[in-house]
Amino acid sequence: MSDLFNPDGIAVVGASATPGKIGYEAMQNVIEFDGPVYPVNPSASGSVFDREFVSAVTEIDGDVDLALCCVPAPVVPDVIEECGEADIGGAVIFAGGFGEAGPEGQELQDRLVDAATEGDVALLGPNTSGFLVPEEQLYATFATDIDTIPSGNVAVVAQSGGLAYAIAFQAENEGVGVSAMVGLGNRANVGFEEAIEYFDTDPKTDSIILHVEGTDDGRGLLETCQRVETPVVAYNVGEQDVGDFAESHTGALTGEYELYEAGFAQYGVPTVRSSTELLDAGTALASSPRPDGPNVGVVTAQAGPGIAITDRLKAAGATLPSLTEETQEIVEEILPGITFSANPVDTGRPMPEFGEVVDAVARDENVDIVLVYELYEGGLGYPTDDLEGLVDDVDKPIVFASGGPREIITEELAELEAIGIPTFTAPERAADAVSALVQYAKRNAEPDAVVAGEEVSADD
Amino acid sequence: MSDLFNPDGIAVVGASATPGKIGYEAMQNVIEFDGPVYPVNPSASGSVFDREFVSAVTEIDGDVDLALCCVPAPVVPDVIEECGEADIGGAVIFAGGFGEAGPEGQELQDRLVDAATEGDVALLGPNTSGFLVPEEQLYATFATDIDTIPSGNVAVVAQSGGLAYAIAFQAENEGVGVSAMVGLGNRANVGFEEAIEYFDTDPKTDSIILHVEGTDDGRGLLETCQRVETPVVAYNVGEQDVGDFAESHTGALTGEYELYEAGFAQYGVPTVRSSTELLDAGTALASSPRPDGPNVGVVTAQAGPGIAITDRLKAAGATLPSLTEETQEIVEEILPGITFSANPVDTGRPMPEFGEVVDAVARDENVDIVLVYELYEGGLGYPTDDLEGLVDDVDKPIVFASGGPREIITEELAELEAIGIPTFTAPERAADAVSALVQYAKRNAEPDAVVAGEEVSADD
Fold first, then answer.
1. Which of A367, B52, B254, B288 gives B238 a disulfide partner, CB atoms 3.0 to 4.6 angstroms apart?
2. Contact state of A376 with B144 under an 8 Å Cβ cutoff
3. What domains appear along chain B, each with residue ranges and CATH number?
């Protein structure tokens, strides 16, 4: 697997000097990689992007672990056979026309898998748009403009390459990064299990987010999620019958939505309902301490967003515990005549003491997770100084949501993120991210800490 | 009401020269207005922001329709009495401590309403952060940095001022504008009905979006929504019991969530489940022709996002009709061997013919609303030229979703918006916006076009 996702050198099979062709786009992306790149094409001569064409992967004079196959489907099994001969351990297959395209395609995919098994080649795809690792400037894809996607600590593992990019670009749009982005496609011999296990050992990855349309081996996927140390979140698509459209896609049958939802719950995996929620949940899990329980303390500077957040948290099964008398006394001492000192704590409007109130709630022994909402107020800013060190001190997730002019808050919220506090710019998005933390806590609770009504796997 | 929302001149009662005070922040905001502004304060002398202090509203020598009351609660009834004497027809009351604060507060609020009735003054608040009309640079609020919020054609009418700002800043963050943003607060004598009726007649407003926590007069609100010509969307908060926190807020009892949901359905109002969905639904309704039916044609360049969109649309009750044979033939002629030519139409990846495919689906007589997903591809861009004039031609909403680097797509999606196509950067957000259009179509259908199972008011 490390040949595939962490190669020393790369071959682009079917490389082309013609812009617009997949073999050209893949070359253009992959030359940003800091390692040797070889264009392979038996019918081309000269060079492309200053690299000399080679006639076959077996003719490469150098260290290559990964081949990007930009050739049509019928040729792919032979190329993989040659990869095996050339000791290339990983290959990305962009072409469609395999398992998703009926019996003939399946036959071709079987030949492909045989060649890969024979030659010990890990295959990403076929029918994928590839993968990328921004930290390594490794863009194993034909998609364009992907070098804008920042490096981060969330690994995106999607059944659909298209959805993988939809998520990665949302991350870019929000200034969030990914440690890797992978579109699995047909999963000929690299599926969810292999990818999850690989990214579990990846030092750059602190959470793994999954897009699942359906798989032949649900149990294997679930057991892998439970076995790995890194938190996993899943976006399970297919609640409704979308008919043969899904089947025509990655050759997978949807329609087992409820089974997967129940399985993820049992095996400790929070589930979400959109690509945005998936990214947000992964970001919150990757950048926070793991929560010890489902009890959320809410601090808000404005009642309306606080009520919307509370409503949504409760609908998702979160508990808003009473604060200890000690905390309530501290809060009332900081802000005599405070608008609402129960949980949620409502300070009425932003104020210099706001950070002290958050600090008091975060230190409350009844609280496992803190959610803060405060509209930006010029001249006051965010309580970044007051909150510095707090996350480490209390070892609990603190999530911060706000609204304000983009130009200003982008910069100021980044300072909160730098001290370990994930941030969001819509109240309900923060509530959804915290709901995923709540699910994580409930679904991974020690047996004696299990909340009534929650099912936990016997071998937890 | 036009004294309140469309004044010629403004008095700031309790104006202050001390930064940080509400009377200073309100002055700072309101001097951007293109009209006379008078700071009123009996105990101040000299000037603030180059305007001379006046001792009382009755002493102003000039045309004033609107008073911003930055004084403490106990003084407010007397100020409103003076406003009546001075023929000032609108007032914003920022202070809390009225109906939301128990019996004594209610008594004060009753005195306030009596004074307003006597003097014929329309009151926004008390317990509000005010309103703004970006087009007029009218910022009747003490909140900061609000002059960044762009002008647009969606009116935000929120029970909570905090949530109004949360929505308005989300709009700013996304480059979307608002025609007005209003936080109703305690609704002493200006409530949902008055605000909705006013913005229905406002030429800048093409849709009205509501945040509702609860109101004494649900029926009046619903009948107003049905009576007005402008489309209304509602975000109804309070599915869960959030206890006395909500009551302490705007003096309203939540807990009638299901009743409101059913009422909005019956009276033709789409409902949504978050502030983001509310803004998106309002934007889609404001910038599209009204849909004639709930039948959605989906065109996607990537299967994964297409499946996620279809799944979500179906869950929300949308219908994906079969395309006519004629349309299918056109699509297959444009793209021989197309990946999937039913509905959704999946072109497999972006391509120069993508716009022609969208055009064909939009012209299909079975389709009432079109939803398009296409990841951005450099060198190809979006099919803006192909789609120009299409919305007017077919008189149907066309909604476009995409993913790509922020720097690039912000500009390119704006070109699509300029030709009447609302755009979104997450597949599920586009699906949610289209779901609101579907709800609108179903809930406002002519009786003979009613879809089975939908309830419609007898006087529709």
1. B254
2. yes
3. 1-134 (3.40.50.720), 149-286 (3.40.50.261), 289-447 (3.40.50.261)
